[in-house]
Amino acid sequence: MRLSLYIAKMKNFIINILFPIKCLGCGIKDEILCDNCVKKIQLNERETCENITALFDYRDPLIKKAVWELKYHHKKYLGEKLGQLLYDSLIEEISDLKIEVPNRTIYVIPVPISHKRTKNRGYNQSFVIAKGFCNQASPGIFEIKDKIIIKKIDTEPQAKITNKKRRLKNIQGVFEIKSKDEVKGRTIIIIDDVTTTGGTIGEIMKVLKKAKAKNVFGFTVAH
Question: What is the C-alpha separation between 112 and 147, in angstroms, rounded?
């Protein structure tokens, strides 16, 4: 165990030397998104679908760049930072949820992507965001459940579809639940990077509600 931890630390050390971390906004060293740049990102003020909350406005150039770098340029560590910011901004809402379910963990489900896309990208960006989100909280509050819901159909990427009706149709019936008994009576948070029409999270909500989940909410980085 100590050897593997040492190897991991050495690997990170070498990566930091070869590819030093700089703020995506201002270029300051050792910060992937510094506090000053985060404060300048436009918060989301546009209406989202029911029970879906988004932190930032996706039209802001910096947050759009952050999501793009996370999804397409292998900047995995950006996801954890975005997850931390998401948690910090929604801490009051989370506290209210915790009061409703004392002595029970809240399940956190990252929006799944297809096996093909996971293989090509190397990771699911929503899972990385969810990990940063959960790690920011005290132990025992959240439990990531990334195997309960699967994407059974490899659809066309939502970002490539501009028509709202087509986007909603594209995502219909593509998610499947693996363990209905596990979600029955549970409070669940779905985590994603961006919501536009709410179709993706909405479809997962339908599946979870059908399996008798008690409460289901969607938290996203941007809208």
Answer: 9
DSSP-assigned letters across all residues of 85-117: HHHHHTHHHHHHHHHHSTTSPEEEEEPP--HHH
Q: Whole-model pTM?
A: 0.88
How do residues 125-151 score in pLDDT, each as one tens digit? Answer: 999 999 999 999 999 999 999 999 998
Residue 12 three-state SS: helix
What CATH number has the domain spanning 41-222? 3.40.50
206 backbone dihedrals φ, ψ, rounded to 5° = -60, -45
CA distance 17 to 11: 10
- Rounded-to-integer distance, Cα 149 and Cα 160, Å: 23
β-strands 149-151, 142-144 pairing = unpaired
